[in-house]
Amino acid sequence: MNKIIVANWKMQLLPSEAKKLALSFLKSLVVTKNKIVICPDFLSLVELAPLFKNSSLSLGSQNLAAYDMGAYTGEIPAESLKELGISYAIIGHSERRTYFQEGDKLIAGKIKKALSNKIIPILCVGENAADRKQGRANIVIRQQLKGALSSLSVKELKNLYIAYEPIWAIGSGLTCNLEEALTIKDVICDRCFKLGLKKVKVLYGGSVKPDNAAKFLKKGAFDGLLVGGASLNLESFKKIVNF
Ligand code: PGA
């Protein structure tokens, strides 16, 4: 089965830089068996959308509003993303949970809005270093999944990806040991099964680099990757997508 490799450019590039990098991706990453999704910031997304229209690469957003269109100053509605042809949205990234106080209810609302606009949500879950140290990783992941998914129907859940991103691994150069990451993947699959979903696609994220990508993608491991820092460079991202 093909994997999905998602580039999360966060707030790292000016629109001119994002365009330059995106054009190099469009030129160099077309021949790959894997699905590639690029998630630039919103300003760049507007400019890049027409360039990705007839390409094998897809665009995703890093967030979206949980609300219907209306008086919500500063928010970006799912309807606008849909009009631009955006197919994926990262939702509940740990940086949004931490710096913007996004809680489960809001995250659940964002997932619903994405799904109702035919945008595939990539829900991020993950424990912090303290939770891991206390052996609470499983509990935290279960809570996050329950909070974000309990109000969704089985039909809706089918179109969802889940990214396991241990917070302590994000941007730190530390990656989760594969066995431990797979234990969490089982927790995710088990929770989704309890919610009525037989199969769910689970991605790994957190300091994914060219030298560790393959282990997370080997047979029976993860369905894809969520890549931050290493997606900001054509050569390193190319190695990851062609693992
Ligand atoms: P990183 O970021 O690859 O730089 O650790 C991943 C993410 O935050 O999605």
From the structure above, extract its key features.
single chain, 243 residues, alpha/beta, eight-stranded parallel beta barrel, 42% helix, binds 2-phosphoglycolic acid
**Number of distinct beta strands:** 8
Form type: globular
The small-molecule ligands in this entry are:
2-phosphoglycolic acid
Q: Work out the helix count.
A: 11
Low-confidence stretches: none
The residue fraction in helices comes out at 40-55%
Q: How do the strands of the widest beta sheet line up side by side?
A: 1-2-3-4-5-6-7-8
Q: Percent of residues in beta strands?
A: 15-25%
Oligomer: single chain
Radius of gyration equals 17 Å
Helix-strand string:
EHEHEHEHHEHHHEHEHEH
- What is the average of the pLDDT values? 95
Terminal-residue CA separation = 14 Å
Tell me the structural class.
alpha/beta
Describe it for me?
By secondary structure, this protein is α/β, with parallel strands linked by helices. It is built from eleven helices and eight strands. Strands 1-2-3-4-5-6-7-8 form an eight-stranded parallel β-barrel, surrounded by five helices. Helix 9 links the parallel strand 6 and strand 7. Helix 1 runs parallel beside helix 2, helix 5 packs across helix 7 (137-149) and helix 7 (137-149) packs parallel to helix 9 (178-194). The longest helix is centred in the C-terminal third of the chain and has 17 residues, at 178-194. The two termini are 14 Å apart. The mean pLDDT is 95. It binds 2-phosphoglycolic acid (PGA). The site of 2-phosphoglycolic acid has 13 residues, from strand 8.
